[in-house]
Write a structure and sequence with these properties.
By secondary structure, the chain is of the alpha/beta class. It has a single domain, classed as Alpha-Beta Barrel (TIM Barrel). The protein is 43% helix and 16% strand. It has twelve helices and eight strands. It has an eight-stranded parallel sheet. The longest helix has 19 residues. The chain is globular and about 70 Å long.
Amino acid sequence: MKLPVNRFKAAIKARDKQIGIWNAMCSNIAAEILSPAGFDWALLDMEHSPSDLRTVLSQLQAYETGETTAIVRPTWNDPVLIKPLLDMGTMNMLVPMVQTPEEAAAAVAATRYPPRGIRGVSLNQRGNKFTRITDYIERFEEEFCLIVQIETQSSLAQVAEIAAVDGVDGIFFGPADLSADMDIIGQLNNDDLWTAIMKGVEDAENAGKPCGTLVGNGDKATELLNAGFTFVACGTDTSLLARGADGLLESVKQGIS
């Protein structure tokens, strides 16, 4: 058995537009519901949801049955957490709050075996199908996709240098944290916010790296995919459930005479 080609990594490298969805419900059932929907990628969030290694594992298993690529966001740029996520089969990772080229390099090192990095070595783990993938060691770096997240004005000013780090495959911009750092917290449609982000996109693209982000509606996602972004999540499972529930209840209430 050979390590499969990472479709998502190949797609963003070729600048093929990739539409995503955010998973924050920590649920393999939610993942099974979303997996057949046809999104190109889905983010399994540990940073802002009560997910843990077991819930992430169950979601990875759900997405393996379909064509949607699962990307895991750990709680922090922490090699202790990154190691078991890799061993359980994570092939795409979004590392949050990367502030400098040095922090980007540390994230890369956490995903690389010695002597190129510090990843601990387990030769019998879920990532290599318990030794059945015979070229896992040789081809893991080639197929693994590492994306780093830009969330402050300081890191935004260093996007070119961060994007140039060997082993970084993409740059992800976090509008919510950037809005807070710019003292316009929650103003996610603010022109100054998106002017700053689009300058970061330009810097990253000039360094040869594709860019992604998360927004809350399809119209904004379409706008950004037409404006230079390569991969954009257009909503979250929690928001879909909340808005759907609110809308359903309101429609019934309005129909009662």
